[in-house]
From TrEMBL:
NCBIfam families: PRK05472.1-3, PRK05472.1-5, PRK05472.2-3, PRK05472.2-4, PRK05472.2-5
Entries under SUPFAM superfamilies matching the protein: NAD(P)-binding Rossmann-fold domains, Winged helix' DNA-binding domain
Record-given protein name: Redox-sensing transcriptional repressor Rex
Keywords annotated in UniProt: Cytoplasm, DNA-binding, NAD, Repressor, Transcription, Transcription regulation
Family (UniProt): Belongs to the transcriptional regulatory Rex family.
Top-level division of the source organism's lineage: Bacteria
């Protein structure tokens, strides 16, 4: 595994984005890409891209750009694309159901292996090929699951998180508005869709993009 400690966190967060785009280029048979092309595609300014890529040991040549194959090789190693991370989803409501239908493995290395709910009408079923188990069986069923997606009602979020952590989960993607508390060493990424949408509208209103700058 490449020494990831050298890559700043902000850069590391953009890695999957770069990886997905470069993978598409590779599939199309493209051998190289300029920072301008990348910048337009992933919506990150080219100065940031150049800085990010210097951490990857990729130095773009003027008039040539970056070698797609080299970068993909680096990303695969860094993101551990060969090893799939097993993920569980808790709460098969509207949002949870959509995620189960969404094929996460298309572009990367994560797979939702199992889902949990408390609704007897959902338990025992399967959505998108993912089995839905009784939440009461969480501790028994969770096997080598290191990450979890949380799509339960807000009131359930903390209690279920505690159980996930006890079961060995090291990362939680929290889609509930709850601010959950976890022990040190467990990572929580919080995605509140309502807040994101509000924030988008706020920025659209107050910071309109000046198309002349493009
Ligand atoms: P739906 O219309 O299917 O109820 P929703 O997203 O509007 O979807 P929510 O009330 O947010 O419903 O609940 C999301 C899902 O979480 C539901 O499927 C619900 O059965 C499930 N759920 C609620 N409490 C728990 C719990 N303690 N453990 C596991 N799953 C739970």
């Amino acid at each position: 595994m490449t020494d990831q400690n050298k890559i700043p966190q902000a850069t590391a967060k953009r890695l999957p984005l770069y990886y997905r785009f470069l993978n598409n280029l590779h599939i199309q048979g493209k051998l190289r890409v300029s920072s301008k092309e990348l910048s337009d595609a992933v919506k990150v300014d080219s100065a940031t891209i150049r800085r990010d890529f210097s951490y990857f040991g990729a130095l773009g040549k003027k008039g040539y750009g970056y070698n797609v194959e080299y970068l993909l090789g680096f990303f695969r190693k860094t993101l551990d694309q060969d090893e799939t991370t097993r993920v569980a989803l808790i709460g098969v409501g509207n949002l949870g159901t959509a995620f189960l239908h969404y094929n996460f493995t298309k572009n990367n290395n994560t797979k939702i292996e199992m889902a949990f709910d408390k609704d007897p009408n959902k338990i025992g079923g399967e959505i998108g090929g993912v089995p839905i188990y009784d939440i009461d069986e969480l501790e028994r069923k969770m096997d080598r699951i290191s990450a979890a997606i949380l799509t339960v009602p807000v009131s359930e979020a903390q209690g279920i998180t505690d159980r996930l952590v006890t079961s060995g989960v090291k990362g939680v993607l929290n889609f509930t508005p709850a601010r959950i508390t976890v022990p040190e060493g467990v990572r929580v990424h919080h995605i509140d869709l309502a807040v994101e949408l509000q924030s988008l509208v706020y920025f659209m209103k107050h910071y309109p993009l000046d198309i002349d700058d493009e």
